[in-house]
């Protein structure tokens, strides 16, 4: 087998393995409860992966939390109660969209403060650069004299 064919076979095997790893088995015999659980957990962060939702993650904790959310849905709890339970247990970090309150103030205001600080630093740098390139009257006069001494016209 040539190297290119071997590489193609390896990539195909890897893609099949990756695709099958992403498909989670159904947790509930009730498809509507399963869909409700998936819709709710898409807005909740996996505490292990941190860059995936609970619905996407294949981490053990995420599977356990999905099962727990499903049990709460089947027990008749509302979305607000389920999210409240998870927030009480794991903090606002579990939410992708945390509420605006004292605890999350830095999350909401921080990016704006950093943007304004960056703009202020940029403006100060531009002003300093402009001031450094401008000549005062004495420097201009010396430059004219130097140019006239060296045969340049102003």
Please give a quick description of this structure.
With 154 residues, the chain is mainly alpha-helical.
Order of helices and strands: HHHHHH
Q: Please, what is the CATH homologous superfamily of the largest domain?
A: Cytochrome C biogenesis protein
CATH class of the largest domain: Mainly Alpha
Helix and strand composition category: mainly alpha
Structure summary, number of beta strands:
0
Assembly category: single chain
The CA-CA distance between the termini, in Å, is: 76 Å
Shape from CA axes?
elongated
Total of domains: 2
CATH-defined architecture of the largest domain: Orthogonal Bundle
- Major sheet details: none
Features:
154 residues, mainly alpha, Helicase, Ruva Protein, domain 3, 2 domains, 6 helices, 0% strand
Outline the fold blueprint.
Elements: H1 3-22, H2 31-41, H3 60-74, H4 79-90, H5 105-133, H6 137-149
Helix pairs in contact: 2-3
Structural write-up:
By secondary structure, the chain is mostly helical. Helix content is 65%, strand content 0%. It has six helices and no strands. α2 packs across α3. The termini are far apart.
